[in-house]
Description:
heterodimer, A: mainly beta, six-stranded mixed β-sheet, 11 strands, B: mainly beta, seven-stranded mixed β-sheet, four-stranded antiparallel β-sheet, globular
Amino acid sequence: QQQVKQSPQSLIVQKGGISIINCAYENTAFDYFPWYQQFPGKGPALLIAIRPDVSEKKEGRFTISFNKSAKQFSLHIMDSQPGDSATYFCAATAQGGSEKLVFGKGMKLTVNP
Amino acid sequence: NAGVTQTPKFQVLKTGQSMTLQCAQDMNHNSMYWYRQDPGMGLRLIYYSASEGTTDKGEVPNGYNVSRLNKREFSLRLESAAPSQTSVYFCASSVMNSNQPQHFGDGTRLSIL
């Protein structure tokens, strides 16, 4: 049973465009939603995270939007750059911590120059 | 500051051989994790250790064993490798019971022939 569903599986955008990655979850006990960025040959690294008491969190060009009633959250990358080309994973966990994260299947982003 | 160090980085095994993947962290984290990453499957938790002296099964534990040697080190053992265990293995660590992120190593790429 996949607890976090991520879409699309891949995305190609032009430099300067907006990249949007969507995730949906089922477990209403989830209370911490991080996004991880992974470059080829490297391990995932935390990009940005949100808790359900806020509907949006922005860090530079990266914004998480959270819809608690719909059990959905999304990552928006504004002014996408070739250096943003990577695989992005959404994740979720319960009990307010980073234990036992449940990951989406990932999305490969390609930003063309 | 090394963070999470995994050894080896690459390994090729024959079916039936055994092997231990090593992981060490220098961030004084309580919790450590082992994941496998397969194309289109995201990151799946194999085993985790919430604190020194404890280990628990994750989503896909069959065919694996783990040892939390001390606070710094968490090893993953394949007793009798099978081709289905060909994957990229990631170790991660985190502070227990907090919203701090999991920190990942750069992975061990394991091929089983």
